[in-house]
What does this fold into?
Amino acid sequence: MFIFKDVEQISQHIHKTKASAQRIGFIPTMGALHAGHLSLIKASKQKHCYSICSIYVNPTQFNNASDLDNYPVTIEKDAKMLSEAGCDVLFLPTSDQMYGGKLIATKFDYGNITRVFEGAKRPGHFDGVITIVSKLIDVVMPDEVFFGQKDLQQCMVVKKLLDTSYPNVLFNMQPTQRENSGLAMSSRNVRLSKEEAVVALRLYQALNEVKLLLNQGLSVVNALAEAKLRYLQHPLLKLEYLDVVDSATMETVEFIASEKQYAVIIACWCAEVRLIDNILLTES
Ligand code: AMP
It folds into this structure.
């Protein structure tokens, strides 16, 4: 696996790779890698892409200073995991190279998908995400990008960015990887104590409960209320949202229509850690 820290150097390497007619698959991450990230590398390799993973903890997408300060950094371990997973290139840019000294995100308004849920709860978050994904795509020039369903709204926002500015880049969304317990894998999980990790399972249980109740014919409002009551009334939990949305537009829905794809989404604090998760209603 090649490791590049310098934009010039990786650019030369990419030009050579493209000249040999290989398709480039790109997996942007913030590191502290786990099996969820590796599933994206695997998906890229399965599509026979020359696979480039970036690790960059992007300051402009953090709306909370302590979240940024506490974000885990495990570069050596990450590099080993990527190399073992068959990743071809690891890109480790510096803030200077990405932002030229000015850590400022461009403002984006894609309507509902950038305004609701994560957009509303984490002001500026998607501006930071879109800004850094654009900058990275400009350097890596991928044919395909791979993102995780774990961050469903981010997937929809990146899809919109591609439609708007990079129509030739193919978007791939990969399913959420979970611990055996059902907890969605996340770099932030290392900040949960053993007790908190057990309580955090309630998020996934609540999502599944909503789905079950909807399948049993309950209304959206009642299914949400019931799941909140059964799983999310715990002293360590502070719910930000639990909703049923049209997964393409992130619009909340009150009724389920068979032709659309829906997701149950949640954001909830477990002690000091903010967790997000979702399931698709069609997911088995
Ligand atoms: P992050 O390092 O958290 O910015 O995530 C980098 C990429 O990995 C994003 O596309 C995430 O959606 C994806 N990802 C994070 N956690 C998981 C997971 N548990 N399963 C699948 N993909 C994930």
